[in-house]
Each structure stands twice: as C-alpha cells, then as structure tokens.
Design brief:
Layout (H helix, E strand, L loop, with lengths): L7 E5 L11 E8 L2 H9 L8 E4 L5 E2 L4 E8 L4 E6 L3 E7 L4 H10 L18 H4 L2 E2 L2 E2 L4 E8 L4 E6 H4 L17 E10 L9 H9 L7 H15 L7 E5 L5 E2 L1 H10 L5 E3 L5 E3 L1 H7 L6 E2 L2 E3 L6 E4 L5 H19 L8 E2 L1
Parallel strand pairs: 2-5, 3-5, 4-20
Antiparallel strand pairs: 1-2, 6-7, 7-12, 8-9, 10-11, 10-12, 13-19, 14-16, 15-16, 17-18, 18-19
C-alpha cells in the first residue's frame, strides 16, 4: 500500500497559485505529514518525473502546464516550544498559512512577527524568499528549520548560518539547497518586545493613530491597513505581490543616477551600496496601470504585476520583460523578478 494519499492526474493548479494562472499538473499529491512526503520520494514511480513542491503558490509564476508531479505541502500545526533568557521559540509546520501564524502569535501575546502581517503564502516558503516588509526580514526573527533531503532521505535541522539568508534570498534558491523540502520553521520572538518603527511609512501611520507606545497588535493592524490600501487582494485580482526585487547598485552608480534623476528613491545600505526603489523606476518608465494582453501593472503600485482575468503565464513574462527592457534602457539598471518561473 502506498504511504500517501491518492494521486490525482491532470490536476488544475489555478486555485493553487495566487496569480490565478490556469495550468494543470500531470500528477498531484496533497502532503499532510512527513511520512507521506518520505513515501513519495521512496516510490520509484515518480523518480523519472520532474517534481514541484508547492505551498501557497504566492511566489510562483506558472508559464505552462507542469509535466511532472506537484507535491502540495498542506501540513498543519503551531506551538510554543520553549525558549531562552531572551526569546520565546515558536514552531510552525510548513503548510501553515503565514498570516494565520502571525495572528496566532499575537493572540498568544507574542510580538515579533507583526511587521510581516498579511504577506501571502505559507510558513515553509517564508525562509526560502527571506520574506520582508516594513523594516523586518525573516532572518531577524529566525531560529532554525527542519528539512527533508531527498538525496539521502535524511531529516536535518538548519540554523540561520546554514540557510545563508540575503536580500530576498537563501540557500534554498541555489543549487546547494534547491532540492531540500522544508518541514517546519522555528522563530525566536523577543521576551522584551519593542516595536520596529524605523520604516518611515509605518512610523508615520502609527503616529497618525496617536499611538506613542503601540502594541504589537496595533502595529500589525497598521501594517494590514497599509497593505490593503496599496496592494491588490490575490483573491480578487491575481498577483504575486512585489514582482521585482529592489535593485542594489554601487554608491558611484547611484550618484551618477542622482545627477540625472534628482528625485531617485534610494536607500543607503550598511556595506556602502545603495538600494533603489524598483517601483519608482517602473513608474518613471510609464508602466503603472498599463496592460499587455490580460496581464497588467497595478494602478496603485507599479511593483505589482496582475492578472486582469484570463492572463497566461506567457503574457505575464512578456510584460515583465518589456518592463525590464525599459528600465535598463532608461536607467541602466537590471531588474530581477522575485517569483519563480515554472
């Protein structure tokens, strides 16, 4: 008997990617526990087929039907698992909804994740992308995670150093870790909580509420309000959030751009480089609100590409490439897409 749930063939993936792209998988298995996952990888039936591990589908662009096996990670569970003198440790299964976890920690009077409220996707995807928003990244609240390694069937724990976190980056996006399947993630949340308000837009929004000492819940509510005002709800308009990374350039290149474009939005980095606002670059090229087929640029935020209804993955790719070409031609800056193209 197979140690996993039944296989479904020609499975529709439209509801499993936040872009809402219509595509099918040759085969699909919903994974609800580690034993099922191990069983699939041990089954010779699937060894010749490509595999795609899918969580919430919030950082994926399906460009065609998938000719292999989709493993949909739908594991559940979250709990306080201890701590030390300075931090509480919270562990969540990879299939847990990310925003659901943030809400749960707040209900347990555990602050630390509130700046990352309302980010779509699952817990397991959060360290892969080192998700970040409003002055906080996963690496800032990360303790460890557990992975299954299909190469030898082992289950291992990895700390922050092993995950090699970078800006919207980790070892899981590179050859050394691309095949690892994340099973759960443990976060270190401060016992002595202080709001992180060094991101100007968030600080201003909190101040406008008259909160001089906001609670973690109030910070989360403010983040949710900002995101809902600026970003489309994937349940209404298909999208994958910010489509491009903010490019990082040398201080010399930034100075040259500022001489030509004085209103250039840029942020100094600790290593002396400068991070440019990709949304500003795209907006200056006139792309905000424009369409290419059924794909388009969100009218309220140039960094977000959307499915206006019936868009194909190919249309989204063509739109992204046209934007990249315009930004390169005008500013000499390369934009890198955040979603994984499948």
């Amino acid at each position: 008997m197979q140690p996993y749930t039944s296989v479904q063939h020609q499975f529709p993936l439209q509801s499993l990617n936040t872009f809402g792209i219509a595509a099918t998988a040759h085969a699909y298995i919903r994974i609800t526990n580690t034993e099922q996952l191990i069983g699939v990888y041990a089954d010779a039936t699937w060894r010749a087929l490509p595999r795609l591990v899918l969580g919430g589908g919030s950082n994926v662009l399906l460009t065609d039907d998938f000719p292999g096996l989709v493993l949909h990670i739908a594991t559940e569970g979250k709990q306080l698992v201890g701590g030390n003198d300075t931090h509480h440790f919270v562990r969540a299964a990879a299939g847990e909804n990310w925003h659901g976890l943030v809400q749960w920690t707040l209900s347990q009077n555990l602050g630390g994740l509130e700046n990352l409220a309302l980010i779509p996707g699952t817990v397991g995807a959060s360290p892969i992308q080192n998700i970040g928003a409003y002055g906080l990244e996963i690496k800032d609240v990360f303790h460890s995670l557990t992975v299954f390694d299909p190469r030898d069937g082992a289950i291992r724990s990895m700390d922050a150093a092993a995950c090699r976190f970078g800006y919207r980056d980790s070892v899981f996006k590179h050859a050394a870790g691309r095949n690892l399947v994340i099973l759960d993630v443990t976060f270190a949340l401060p016992r002595t909580w202080q709001p992180r308000l060094h991101y100007a837009e968030l600080a201003q929004a909190v101040a406008e509420q008259g909160w001089t000492a906001p609670t973690a819940q109030q910070v989360a509510d403010t983040v949710v309000a900002i995101r809902r005002r600026k970003l489309p709800d994937p349940a209404v308009i298909g999208n994958a959030g910010s489509f491009f990374k903010n490019p990082v350039v040398s201080s010399m290149q930034c100075a040259a751009l500022l001489a030509q474009f004085p209103s250039l939005v840029h942020y100094a980095q600790p290593d002396g480089s400068e991070k440019l606002a990709a949304g500003w670059l795209i907006d200056q090229c006139g792309w905000k609100g424009r369409k290419l087929g059924a794909a388009g640029v969100y009218p309220k935020q140039a960094l977000v590409l959307v499915n206006n209804g019936g868009a194909t993955g190919g249309e989204v790719v063509a739109l992204a490439q046209a934007i990249q070409a315009d930004v390169m031609a005008r500013f000499g800056v390369a934009l890198e897409a955040e979603p994984v193209f499948v």
